[in-house]
Request: fold
Amino acid sequence: MKKSFKIASAVILSALCLSTLSAKPKKNANEITVGFVGPLSGGVAVYGVEAKNGAELAVEEINAAGGINGKKIVMISEDDEGDPAKTVSAFKKLTVQNGVKLIVGSLTSGCTKAITDQSKAMKVVQIAPAATATDITVDAKGKTNPYVFRACFIDPFQGTVGGKFAAENLKAKNAAILYDIGNDYSVGLTENFEASFTAAGGKVTKESYSTGEKDFNAQITKIKNANPDVVYLPDYYATVALIAKQLRAQGITAPIVGADGWDGLTENAGDEVLNGFYSNHYAADSTDASVQNFVKKFKAKYNKEPNSFAALAYDSVYMLKDAIIAAGTDSDSVKIRAALETTEGNYVTGHLTFDAKHNPVKSAVMVELVKKDGKLAASYKATVNP
Reply:
């Protein structure tokens, strides 16, 4: 009797648990839920925290102006720590537990790619603010994922911009590249920088390292022997800061060039990154009125200057707003994603349209790391059009 009772109780309890997990969350008819996924802690937390701040500012502004068709946006944020496996968990929590159909995130290419198939399968509109790897919006056969978009330009464009800038603006003839052989972002940038720089008549020396390495002196010794007049460092800010210190310590004073992964150096590096330039999605010191308005509001709310991740996430929320209005619905993700495909507008990071692979067609800027009032700052240097 007791055994049968225990079994029956267990069956009932299991059924109740399954019912709870599968039950659709109740939605407030006057709210539009948007999910945010990004690294709010961990090695690239600067990206996620800044992006979340930018997205929250956009939500705050939209809600203060009456929302979207009278409905307020509610943003639910999840920390993936820059770990693809945790990005998947965050996606499941947002979609299954919270019923989210609109997601901004994640930030790095690896984490973003980890959930693109799920976005397609569940018809979740996903806008990646800063994932620049070429395969984010397409499958292995190059077919466009109908539900995945990005707010940033892609790595081939960044690598090409860096190579052209080194050859044309810096007048470099001999470039050295030090890159992470196990990082798709770093490898993609390397390939396109090399192609662009050599097409301009330059010579390239390449050295590589593995993700997580801290000592680059052996590679730098070889680079020094090549006597480069520019060094390309296609990696994220924490690693770039380490490499720059070791470059300068070995007496290499040549300009260093990089990409948007450098955003964060102003708060995490020293004078070793001076004479440094990198491609980026916007420049905070631009005279464009929309940029200055964004920077002013961001500074007022967070007491600091916004980096490109903040600007891209801010734009991502406004793109969703425009698509919802164009689609005439905030609940039909099929119509919203169709409306996104035809989006054209002026945003903080530039005038934007989407190509057939959901990549934005817009300009890039090159910024220089300089000293302003005794502190490192990123200063606008040049604009490169697509």
In short: Confidence is low (pLDDT under 50) at residues 1-23. The first strand starts at residue 31 and ends at 38. DSSP finds 13 helices and 15 strands in the chain. The CA atoms of residues 43 and 82 lie 7 Å apart.
